[in-house]
Amino acid sequence: MNSLSTSKALSFGGILSRRAYIPMRYSQYLNFFLFGILYNAAAFAVLRAIIDYNMPDYQAVALNYFRDYSFILGLLLLVPLLRYWGYKRMLLIALSLMIIATIMMTLPISQHFIVAEGFFALTGLCFSIVYVSGYTLLLREERRAPRRIAVILRIEGVHQIGLFVSFLIFAPFAERKSIDAFWSDAYLVIVPLVLLTFLLQFLTRTNEDHKAGQGFHTVPHLRFLYYLGNSLVWICLVCILLLIVVRENFFTWIHTLDAAIVSTDKVQIYDQGAFAFTLFMMGLGMITTSFLLERFKPFTIFTFCLVAIIFSVILTVVYTRNHEFSVAHTWQDIPPVALLIPWTAFFIGPILPLIYGSILNYTPKNHYSILIAIMLVATFIGKYPASQTAVFFYENFTDYISYAFTLIPMALLFVMFFLYYFDLKKD
Prior knowledge:
The structure is a single chain. The chain has 19 helices and no strands. By secondary structure, the protein is mainly alpha-helical. The chain folds into 2 domains: 22-204, Growth Hormone, Chain: A, CATH 1.20.1250.20; 218-427, Growth Hormone, Chain: A, CATH 1.20.1250. Helix 7 (87-105) packs antiparallel against helix 8. The protein is globular and about 60 Å long. 43% of the residues are buried.
């Protein structure tokens, strides 16, 4: 009798020990999707700044800086902390903080601008943890090079779609004219998603190649210097910066076109909508490309995408040179070149993940987080000067000439990526 009860207990214990875990890729995809929504929320806080915070939007744009600079700071400082505490543990801590912060944003306290600043600073910091941890854990699972690049394309694509969904969630709240309505009311919709993301991450088993809490390491900071002395890393960073110049010029072109064809009273929200749809098409391009890597080499896809973008830019310049834009009152009034924006976004999306993936394929597994942090810092720091440069061109040159300038960095990008890709293959 005792032996029977013992065997039942062992059997029950075995069932518990073998309980099903959720595949890691699902929890990481949801992490990137969630932070796409949370990250882009700052744009709608800026839109509502005059009504909700009684300040002009050019002052409220500080929310974007709090978010982006804390993200960069997290990338630079948290790499050794991630290795010390363990990736899953740090992910759970980041999501726990976001649960508390998101619930706070549904309360009246969120109506103070300083609270919004703190919230977006925390969002950027937590996203840096999610970004580096998600990349590192997923890439370590894949053994084949094409599949690693495909993983990067998918998580970046899911993140872009999350940025698009943020427009669907926040735009209805941002459009309300009532003084009693507040933009942060949208977080009532997001709180359940944050809780679900935390639960999914908690139930996910991660295969980490070190024991958490096994001593604090400062070596990763020294590895930053090692990689910054590598010529291939610098070529990679130049490729990233050239692409950022192309992307920011493209985004400025979208804003310029919106300002020309949308009436003044609606231009802000329509501009956000066009930008959100552009991000959706970029995400769709990334996810589609991830399935093509089984049949085509990364350089072939990169070249095809670049040629498609150049073709789109040339068509836009030729059409715009001979036509003037006016406010569109119906769908028929929208100029044909507006249809080229989704086309361009679809092909411009996969290029950055392809640059990331090409060098990460040749990086040791225990160095993933270092190189990811370096590339992301370059990407985010490069956005601001590239954006200001694009604005300068559109303010001082004709709009189609300013857009045509993207052909120069695209030509340089092709040359640099050619050298970079085949140098990596040779090594």
